[in-house]
Amino acid sequence: MTLRAARLALPLLATLSLGACADATRTERNVGTGALGGAALGGIIGSFSGNAGWGALIGGAGGAGAGYLYEQSQRAQDRAYWQGRQDSRRYRR
């Protein structure tokens, strides 16, 4: 594939792949965002040592884990919020 064809194909592929995220759950979005951010950061850091691919792979895995932990934290906050609302309604009566 020539460089010119790759310049046209890669943005088109990226745009089409975002269509798969339209009906993603909150967990899937958070894990995906973490993986994407981790892969980008890992690729940049890995490029300094000449191993951008490995850096992106390791960064993506770490980012996905961080996104999952963030989602679990958000769920715990949501549960605490709704429990507090339920308790306040119970004691208000």
3D architecture notes:
By secondary structure, this protein is mainly alpha-helical. It has one domain (26-92). 87% of the residues lie in helices and 0% in strands. It has three helices and no strands. The chain has helices spanning 3-18, 26-49, 52-92. Helix 2 packs antiparallel against helix 3. The longest helix is centred in the C-terminal third of the chain and has 41 residues, at 52-92. The radius of gyration is 20 Å and the shape is elongated. The N and C termini lie far apart (71 Å). 15% of the residues are buried. The mean pLDDT is 87. Pfam families: Gly-zipper_Omp. InterPro entries: Gly-zipper.
In a nutshell, what does this entry contain?
This protein is mainly α. It has three helices and no strands. The longest helix is centred in the last third of the chain and has 41 residues, at 52-92.
